[in-house]
Amino acid sequence: MPRIVLFGATGYTGRLTAAALCDAGAGPVLAARNPITLAALVEDLGGGLETAVADVADPSSVRALLEPGDVMVSTVGPFARWGAAAIEAAIDAGSVYIDSTGEPPFIRRVFEEWGPRAEASGAALLTALGYDWAPGNLAGALALADAGGAARRIEIGYFLTGGGMGGMSGGTRASTAGVMLEPGFAFRGGRIVAETPGRRLARFEVRGREREAISVGASEHFTLPPLSPGLTDVEVYLGWFGKLSRPMQIGSVGLAAIGGIPPLKRGLAALTRRLVSGSTGGPSAEERSGGGSYVVARAYGSGGGRLAEVRLGGIDGYTFTANFLAWAACAARDGAVTGSGALGPAAAFGLERFEQGVAEAGIARA
Fold it and tell me: In the chain, how many domains are there?
């Protein structure tokens, strides 16, 4: 049977994913750069798991992780800094590749740069299969299906409920800080266009209360248009920031200006790396248990009328990410992925199976 190789297993998301894979009976190969922390993780998980030492500084060590038919799961973030080695290894091996990134610039590279190479090698690249951006992919795909091909525009909003996610992990903070200095994008007029993160503001009704959200680049901009050929605009919004949404929208203009001046961008990026490190832990199980997720997708026709709306709700983002990565890896190992190149989850698994997987991971129709 093909193996599931979890690269980045000793980081915060990696540990959660390793536990979810073990709960699913998958017996993953755990890979990271430090053999001591790997051994401690195996002990924490009850022992009996294979480990491998690999470091992104030595891409050949990452390539050596994979054998024919293996599934690569990468939780090595920030992906803009550390993610290339794993995806390059999967392309070379013709493997199924799955990752937890939410970083728009990395996602764009997957679809525009690595996707064509993967199609040629027979590899399947499934990027952003965590809370960023799998639930919105599902809500959007369901809304498009309900619209019956008549949709021309779709809006997707992500919100936190309860106690949120119990605070961000170090990896999430580092990824978010890096993303704000990079060019954004959206799908408008039937094509991917440059757009500053936070340029647009939208309002969504969430459990009887109107909440604001700011626009972001996401995987939905690439994955939803192939599902509905008449679709011309895809808008994705984050509603994590509450009353800070409008100030963040204003602040994004200043960050975009800095990002356009190379010396200033390099200096601020260097400062960010010093102040915001990567894998430094995250919310505890108790903190995560107090949080929840809510996702809304709204499809509109050519005249601007709303054709369909889908609402999803469930557990916190970190727990969902680990559970869904484990589900997707097991499904890929069992041959459930259809196609090669850069794929969206609805296309790769089929909409019905995809909805089942998201539900099993903890988020379902609200």
Answer: 2
